[in-house]
Amino acid sequence: MKLYNLFADILEPPGLLLSDRVNQCISILASSLQEAAGLLNQFKTFLDQTPLSRKEEIYTGTFHVQTACYPYVGYHLFRDGSHRKLFLAGLEEQYQIYDFLAADELPDHLGIMLRFLAKDEDEEERDELISLWIIPALKRMLGGFEVETNPYKVLLRTRLLVLQEGHEARDEKITVEMRVKRCLRR
């Protein structure tokens, strides 16, 4: 659960605590998921060798300029249509059950969803959020990177590896229509 919050923290714009959060993630992953820890070490190298202004520039270019990498799960699954609105409404309902607030972000922001995963006590519900929504969105985000050397691609790849651990890759068989039906059932 702590790992979800750390991943959400790392998705925030670069700041003074970013390197510390990455180190905490590496420590947690080092014994269980060495590949993910190795990828995070690559991201840590980028953090250590790059001035803050350049980190901010890369972050903004990645998550706010390139629509392929917007950090909004629903956008990657439904774009900006009515299906996304249903998805957002469903997430809001789910969040209200746990008195969880999305703060100043839309409820499908990847960081918000990761924070919710840390709070959600229902394992089946967490698995559904991860398998049906977050993993497919991460795959689309990773496919949208224009620059292969972008350090945030490494960061998203790490998240994907960690979230896929223990989850079947059943998302490959799930169509948009199935996801919409899932939203409507809520």
Proportion of strand residues: under 5%
The total count of helices amounts to 10
Helix percent reads 55-70%
What characterizes the major β-sheet?
none
Q: Which geometry do the CA atoms define?
A: globular
Uncertain segments are 169-173
The CATH class is identified as Mainly Alpha
The tally of structural domains comes to: 1
| Euclidean distance between termini CA atoms | 25 Å
What structural category arises from helix and sheet content? mainly alpha
Give the H and E element order. Answer: HHHHHHHHHH
Radius of gyration over C-alpha positions, nearest whole angstrom = 16 Å
**Average predicted local confidence, pLDDT:** 89
Q: CATH topology, which one?
A: TorD-like
Let me know the number of strands: 0
CATH architectural label: Orthogonal Bundle
